[in-house]
Design brief:
It is built from six helices and no strands. The longest helix has 36 residues. 13% of the residues are buried.
Length: 169
Amino acid sequence: MVILITAPQATPSSYADMRVTIAAISNYVLLPSLAVALISGLLAMAAHRPYTEKVWAWIKAATGILMFKGVLTIVGAKADYAASVSERIASGEVDVEVLETALAYEWQALITILAISVLNVVLGVWRPNIKRRRNSGRADTGSTRIGMERQRERDRLAAAEKARSAPEN
């Protein structure tokens, strides 16, 4: 975004050079660093069991995957596409409106990815205590202390009932 805003874009050839720079940064810096961050985050979840029980960690993993997919498919592809279109505009092959349409979509994608990345950082720093919703139609499975006590009581009552109804020898 910084390069798009600050780079010289007065001529089609300077614009084409800027787009080649964006494509190179996307391919050689941005995508590998996002891949390393995503893989290390997933490995951290696998290695540290409490992370797998936290809803915020799963949301963060999902937003990390969305960011990687967005950068890979949208930003990387658009940077390469805009670089090729701007080179064709510089040589006079393509009309400027084609690039303007592509840039409008690219800015929308960049803003979306920026919002997702801000959400990802907020989740990583804030780590909200989001509770999983329990299925109210099911009986308690004993996952909590109270549920375990209820299950023991049910088992005790069932054993007592079975003992009463068993025929005596």
